[in-house]
Amino acid sequence: MAEASGRPAVLPRTMHQRRHILDLDDFSRDEIVRVFDAADSMREVMQRDIKKVPTLRGKVIVTLFYEASTRTRVSFEIAGKALSADVVNLSASGSCVSKGVSLVDTVRTLEAMGIDAVVVRHSASGAPYLMAQHLRTSVINAGDGWHAHPTQALLDLYTMRGHFGALDGLKVVIVGDVLHSRVARSNLWGLHTMGAEVVVCAPPTLVPAAWRAGCEPQVEPPPSRLLPPVRLSYDLDEALPGADVIMVLRLQRERQQSGLLPTLREYSRRYGVNAARVALARPNALVMHPGPVNEGVEIAPDVAHGAQSVIEEQVRNGVAIRMALLYQLLGGR
After folding, report:
1. Which of 88, 106, 89 is nearest to 98 (CA)?
2. CB 8 within 8 A of CB 1
3. What's the rounded Cα separation, in Å, for the pair 217 and 231?
4. Among 333, 332, 330, residue whose Cα is nearest residue 80
5. What is the pLDDT of residues 194-222, one digit of tens each?
6. Residue 194 in contact with residue 32, Cβ under 8 Å?
7. Which end of the chain has the smaller Cβ count within 10 Å, N or C?
8. In a domain, 196, yes or no
9. Structural domain for 114, as ranges
């Protein structure tokens, strides 16, 4: 890979053995490290005056989003174009999908047009897996239902590594609606693989039943095939001491309307991350959020924009990580 001026960028070898990126539950530690190493090189590219390299020239990437998205979709588009790929954006409302064409027929049609990868977001858990079963084209999961969001998790882990050097032994407290969070599930797999200690803190109604069954708070549940083992707490003030990272999850207002929470005010009082609670963690603790942020609900405005917040850094790192993944999948073909 070389810049327009001819200056080369040294990149790790590509992921020849992997065709799709569906979740992090099947990623090895070495694979994650290789993605991070490639992202380091991609960050260097993004800091140049000319933020473009010819690595994926001639490749065609389609972003197929059945749900509205801004940051993830734009991040993938910037990443693909920075690698000189042709990026085609396709939304469900403006395509044949709105006419009732099935997901499989849609992607088979796209594959017949000669695309090299499809980035998909879908409201149904498992939709990218269904696509991968019927395609030779690479499928990248940009979020499916409550299930997974692997590229968000990778950029979160990459942001942590940038501050701490390694993830082994870090205490990461994930607070919020874990039950409905695809971001949390992918992060849990990645953090477990990279050796971090994870504490999940949420109201009992927003915790997966696999963790609650037969488990008292702060007791590690038995390993589940569907979820990695974590420590569970219902008390945020008790969970935060010693934390290196506080990962705040977005709370959707419909959770309160569906009866899972008494009121948003009560949730904010018990689980909202404010300055006093950040002070319970380690002095250099990071505050993270996948966005979009509900300021005043799950996180206080002064914390979201404070010195320990790395929310904007997460967004910047998202481009580098997605460039790295596209390169790893398509660069060697």
Report:
1. 106
2. yes
3. 8
4. 330
5. 999 999 999 999 988 877 765 556 656 55
6. yes
7. C
8. yes
9. 29-148+315-330
